[in-house]
Amino acid sequence: MLPLYRDTDIFCIGGSLILSETQFTTTKMTKYPLIWGWASWRDKWEKFSFKLPHFKAMQITYFSQQEKNYWRNKHKEITYFPDLINTWDYYWLFSIWANGGKCLIPPINLIQNIGFVTGGTHFKAGESDYEIKAQEELDVEAAYVPRHKLFSDSGLDLMIF
């Protein structure tokens, strides 16, 4: 899938389909990067920054005031207390949004989370709904949707949020 979306505003292609109640037949677009197994391009990753852009500068549409308030507060928390957040994924999300980027979700799960084992750090086998396993190989041709036919789905964004 990477070659098909390289020169577009797509920043990231997720490898996980953690929305088990949702069935897709084709690739879907969202503003949220799903980071359990994902792929990107060097030129997009080079836009990643630990220096957060001003919140108002982000090119994003929110489906509710609650969502906007959540991300505004998360942005403030990271800005004023960066040592409390020991992760890169919020910075990746805000970097994508600051650059008007979008993300894709495949119609099937493409990865297996190998961290769900008896000696796992955060989860043990069978303890989480997020214990995901790879499905069959993706039929890229069947799942492909040309960029000009992909539109943000606020219902999907709401489910992810």
Structure description:
By secondary structure, the chain is an alpha+beta fold. It has helices at residues 2-5, 42-45, 65-80, 89-98, 140-143, 154-160; strands at residues 10-14, 28-30, 38-39, 102-105. The protein has one domain (2-160). A four-stranded mixed sheet has the order 2-4-1-3. It is globular. The model has no long low-confidence stretch (mean pLDDT 81).
Spatial gap, N to C terminus: 25 Å
- Give, in spatial order, the strands making up the sheet with the most strands: 2-4-1-3
SS strand fraction: 5-15%
Low-pLDDT ranges? none
- Major β-sheet profile: 4 strands, mixed
- Rg result: 16 Å
Based on Cα principal axes, name the global outline: globular
Residue share in helix: 25-40%
Contiguous helical run count: 6
Domain module count: 1
- The average pLDDT is 81
Strand tally, please? 4
Pattern of helices and strands: HEEEHHHEHH
Give the helix/strand class: alpha+beta
Q: What topology does this entry show?
A:
Layout: H1 2-5, E1 10-14, E2 28-30, E3 38-39, H2 42-45, H3 65-80, H4 89-98, E4 102-105, H5 140-143, H6 154-160
Parallel strand pairs: 1-4
Antiparallel strand pairs: 1-3, 2-4
